[in-house]
Design brief:
Largest sheet: 2 strands, antiparallel
Distance between the termini: 29 Å
Order of helices and strands: HHHEEHHHHHHHHHHHHHHHHH
Strand content: under 5%
Helix content: over 70%
Shape: globular
Length: 499
C-alpha cells in the first residue's frame, strides 16, 4: 500500500491520460462514458489521498523517471496545488453522472465516444498544471487542456460553437505564446525551468539580468491573464460558455479559469516572490484597477443578458475580478479569500450551469422568457438555482459569503481599504439584480410555453445538482476544508519564494 501511495503524484495525471488513450482506441460511447466516470472518480480519490498526505506530512516532491530536480521534471504537491487538484477532480467527478443524458442530447451520436476521450485529455491537462513543478511542463499541460477545450466547445450542435471555439483558440494561442516566451526569458536569466529552483536563482540573477527577468514576468503575467480571462483580455469567454454543450460549460466554467488563476498565484508568490513580483512591475495598481473594472463592468453587462448562459458567463468575469483583487492585496486575508474563492466559485458556478443544463434538457432553451413559471414545473431545479445564486451574491450562510468576508478583511488591512470594501459590497448588489431577474421569472411569471410539459430532470442529473447546491450551504457553515486549507496555502505562499 505504501508503494502505491508513493506513486499517487504520477497516477494523478496518468489515470485520466491513459483513460483518454483507451477511449480513443475503443471509441464506443457507452464504454467511454463508464471509463470517463471511473477515471474521474479515481482522480478524485487520488487527489484526496495527496491532500491528506500534504496536510499530515508537508510538501510532496516526486521525480519523474528517477531524475532528481532540477535536472528532471518534478511533480510537487503542497497545500495550494493539493487544493486545486481536489477542486478540478471533484468537479469532474460530480459532473460526470450529469453528463450521460446531457451529452446524449447535445452531442451527435457518432461523436460521443470521442467526446469522452477529449474530456479525459482535458482533465489530465488541468490536473497536470496543478501538480507539475516545472515551468515548461506547465506550458505543455496548459496546451493539452486548452486544445481539448477548443474541441469540446466545437463539438456542440449549435452552429456558433465552432466559431466560439476558434475565437478561444486565437486568444488562447496568443496567451500561450506569451507564456512560453516568458519561460524562455526566465531560462535565459537563470538557467533552470524548475519552479523551486527558479525561486532561489531569480534574486541573484537580478544583478545581471534584471531587464530580462522583468520582461519575462510581464510576458508570463499577460499570457496567463489571457487564459484566466482577466478584463480586458476576456473576449473569448462569453461565447465559449454560451455556445458550448451544457456539460462542457459546467466543467470548464468551474475549472479552466481557476487553474489559470492558480498558475498566476504560483508564479507571483511561490516562484518570483512577493517583493519582486509587486515591485518590478506596477502589478498592485494594475490588478486592483482591472479587478474593480471586471467586478462592475461584467456584472452590469450580465444584468442586460436574456440568454442565461451568457449572463452567467459575464458573472464569471466579475468573479475572476474578486480573485485577482485578493491577489493584488498580497496579504494573508486577501490571498486566503482569493484561494477559497477558487473553490467556492467552482461549486456555485458548476451548480448554476447544471441548472441551465437541466432546463435545456427539458426545454432546449435557456432564454429568460422561457423560464417563466419554472418553479411550478421544475421545483428542485429552481431551488438549486436559488441556493447557488445566493452563494454567488455572497449571502451569509453560503460559501460565497466566506470568500467575500476574507477579501473584505484583507482590504481593510491596506491603506484606504475601506473603499475596496465598499466596492466589493456594491458590486455584489449588482449580482442581486441579475440573479433576481431569473428568480423573479421562475417564481412569479406565468408558466412559459416551453415549460408546459417540463419536469425536474432524471435522478442522474438531479442528484449531482442537489449535491453541489447543498455544498454551497455546507461550505458556508463548515469552513474547515475550504477556508482552512486556503488559509494554510496563503501562509505558505507568503512565507516567500521556495516555501
Amino acid at each position: 500500500m505504501s508503494g502505491l501511495m508513493a506513486q499517487l503524484p504520477a497516477l494523478q495525471v496518468v489515470v485520466p491520460l491513459l483513460g483518454a488513450l483507451v477511449a480513443a482506441l475503443i471509441n464506443h460511447r457507452a464504454f467511454n462514458y463508464w471509463l470517463a466516470l471511473a477515471a474521474s472518480w479515481a482522480s478524485l480519490a487520488i487527489a484526496a489521498g495527496l491532500t491528506l498526505q500534504v496536510l499530515d506530512g508537508g510538501t510532496i516532491s516526486y521525480a519523474i523517471g528517477g531524475w532528481e530536480p532540477p535536472w528532471g521534471i518534478e511533480y510537487r504537491v503542497d497545500e495550494l496545488s493539493a487544493f486545486v487538484l481536489m477542486l478540478v477532480s471533484a468537479v469532474g467527478a460530480a459532473a460526470m453522472p450529469f453528463a450521460r443524458r446531457s451529452v446524449a442530447q447535445e452531442i451527435e451520436e457518432h461523436r460521443q465516444g470521442w467526446f469522452y476521450s477529449v474530456y479525459l485529455l482535458c482533465l489530465a491537462g488541468l490536473l497536470g498544471i496543478a501538480i507539475t513543478g516545472d515551468a515548461f511542463n506547465s506550458f505543455v499541460f496548459l496546451e493539452i487542456s486548452s486544445l481539448a477545450m477548443y474541441t469540446l466547445i466545437a463539438l456542440g450542435k449549435d452552429r456558433r460553437a465552432p466559431v466560439a471555439a476558434f475565437q478561444y483558440l486565437i486568444m488562447g494561442t496568443i496567451g500561450a505564446t506569451l507564456y512560453v516566451a516568458g519561460i524562455g526569458f526566465m531560462y535565459l536569466a537563470t538557467g533552470t525551468l524548475n519552479f523551486a529552483d527558479l525561486s532561489t536563482r531569480i534574486e541573484p540573477a537580478m544583478a545581471d539580468y534584471s531587464r530580462t527577468i522583468v520582461t519575462a514576468l510581464a510576458f508570463l503575467t499577460v499570457g496567463v491573464s489571457l487564459k484566466l480571462a482577466l478584463v480586458p483580455l476576456h473576449m473569448w469567454l462569453p461565447n465559449a460558455y454560451a455556445y458550448a454543450p451544457s456539460f462542457v460549460t459546467v466543467f470548464i466554467a468551474a475549472t479552466s479559469t481557476k487553474v489559470a488563476l492558480y498558475l498566476l498565484i504560483r508564479l507571483f508568490f511561490s516562484v518570483v516572490g512577493l517583493e519582486l513580483a509587486f515591485s518590478a512591475l506596477p502589478l498592485t495598481d494594475v490588478l486592483v484597477v482591472l479587478s474593480v473594472v471586471a467586478m462592475f463592468a461584467a456584472s452590469v453587462v450580465a444584468v442586460f443578458q436574456t440568454d442565461i448562459k451568457r449572463m452567467l458567463a459575464y458573472s464569471s468575469l466579475a468573479q475572476v475580478g474578486y480573485i485577482t483583487l485578493g491577489i493584488a492585496l498580497a496579504n494573508h486575508s486577501g490571498l486566503t479569500g482569493s484561494i477559497v474563492h477558487l473553490f467556492n466559485h467552482a461549486l456555485m458556478k458548476a451548480a448554476l450551469f447544471m441548472v441551465l443544463g437541466a432546463v435545456f434538457y427539458r426545454t432546449a432553451s435557456v432564454q429568460l422568457d422561457d423560464l417563466g413559471g419554472l418553479w411550478r414545473k421544475m421545483p428542485l431545479t429552481t431551488a438549486a438555482f436559488v441556493v447557488a445564486g445566493l452563494g454567488l451574491i455572497g449571502t451569509p450562510g453560503t460559501a460565497g459569503f466566506i470568500s467575500k468576508w476574507y477579501l473584505g478583511v484583507g482590504a481593510l488591512e491596506v491603506p484606504g481599504g475601506w473603499i475596496l470594501v465598499f466596492l466589493i459590497v456594491a458590486s455584489s448588489l449588482i449580482s442581486v439584480v441579475y440573479i433576481g431577474r431569473v428568480v423573479e421569472a421562475a417564481l412569479f411569471r406565468p408558466v412559459a410555453p416551453a415549460l408546459e410539459n417540463a419536469t425536474d430532470p432524471p435522478a442522474t442529473m438531479m442528484v449531482p445538482l442537489l449535491v453541489l447546491a447543498a455544498a454551497v450551504i455546507w461550505f458556508g457553515i463548515d469552513t474547515r476544508l475550504n477556508a482552512g486549507i486556503a488559509s494554510r496555502a496563503a501562509a505558505m505562499l507568503l512565507g516567500g519564494p521556495g516555501s
